[in-house]
């Protein structure tokens, strides 16, 4: 519900409290439900009088389409894009990782020797640090 009031209106507090009470007691919800029920009943009466028109036939056809839908479980075809994107992302990450390794050790083969030594020392429990 919207009520337009002037800025700093003396009626703001009273209208605000009344609307708050109406909302708290559920009157808006009840009014909305009553309005929808009334409009549905009135619409059905109008629709029954329109049985030979194109509007009735189109609405009837749409209602049959909606009611005839069957619910199917997801199949593999629903997940093809998800699986393909995961596989493509993994492939791209692997290529990037191999590229980093080649780039890192391709410039200076001595680095490979140092990395091997560090891995060996770490496995034996000896921790030495040497700058690459």
TrEMBL record:
<keyword id="KW-1133">Transmembrane helix</keyword>
<protein>
    <submittedName>
        <fullName>Uncharacterized protein</fullName>
    </submittedName>
</protein>
<keyword id="KW-0812">Transmembrane</keyword>
<keyword id="KW-0472">Membrane</keyword>
<feature type="transmembrane region" description="Helical">
    <location>
        <begin position="79"/>
        <end position="105"/>
    </location>
</feature>
